[in-house]
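[job 4417] fold queue: 2 targets
>>> target A
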Amino acid sequence: MSNANYGAVPTEDPEQGQGSNEVTQDEPTTFYQRVKTHFEHPPHRHRAVIIYFVILMIGLTGVVTYALADKAARDQERGNFLGLGMEYDANKHYEEICVSDRHWFLALLLSIFLGPLGVDRFYLGYVFLGILKLITGGLGGIWWIIDVVLIALNVLSDGEGCVLH
């Protein structure tokens, strides 16, 4: 019951030669064919869908940004403020700005160190948002980071709409 080929070392076929460069039909030859066969395998198919989705979102974002920028430029040429049909006069609004008695630097420190607990929102007079921020923990840190940036740039006003000093 012995096999004559058992343990035998295969020898080269003299007709093919030592360094045969023949390409079979199963092996992809071009870059496109290699990528296509790579993404046709089931473990890699989800990657192709993700790449397609990302490219689609980038294109959609570009189209929307271009459309909004074009509309804003046309509205600015007509003197239309935010497309609402109102005229915008910066000097008029500058005279009407009120200044809060709350300090910007203190609000920034409260936001950095006690922001997830909502203390900065309580200090600025936003009681409901402070409670909501306290319950959610600053939405897991996202709301906290946004508030730090808004207060650092002095964009966030107090509860009465006045600018922090």
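>>> target B
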Amino acid sequence: MNKLGNFSEVNLFLVADFETSFYNISEPQDKTFLLLIRGTHSIKDTLTAATGAVVPFHHTVVHEGGVSDVILGYAHCGMVAAARWIAKLATPVLLKAFQNHPDYKLQIVGHSLGGGTAALLTYVLREQKELSSTTCLTFAPGACMTWELADSGNEFITSVINGADLVPAFSAASVDDLIDIRVQVFKIGDDGGSEY
């Protein structure tokens, strides 16, 4: 049997190979299912990332006793669509896997476009009782949600960002802020003040 690191081919199953590609891996030693979402890889992925429009995105906080809170906010339209698409395809597979291995946990891992999608997917999956303990690890995630949503995920989403990496900071809102600063600088210059 071909080995893939500590994972055998039996433990690795491809869920999809179009749209935002993602994979499920089971890791028996750590009793963990990993759902991996890759970063930008194709022109279609680039278009998903470039769709900077925001849409309403609300997160229902589920605890053992039921719903405890609803967090209102906005998120990146393309990444929300990708997260919901992955949830639709992966949820039945994950629920079946948890029936066979109820002592396992789920961790979603993503990079760049896949990191932002992973974070949003984590919110989506945690709204189901069986998946409410899902955690997420993202590397250089694309800016994908408003502050209130991001803050509400501090307990279960970890983002790793390298210094002043542009991808996590770049969003439609940050471009608007940059334009506003530039306009203010030119207004100061027109008033005879300093341009800096």
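[job 4417] complete. Note on B: The chain has one domain: 3-165.
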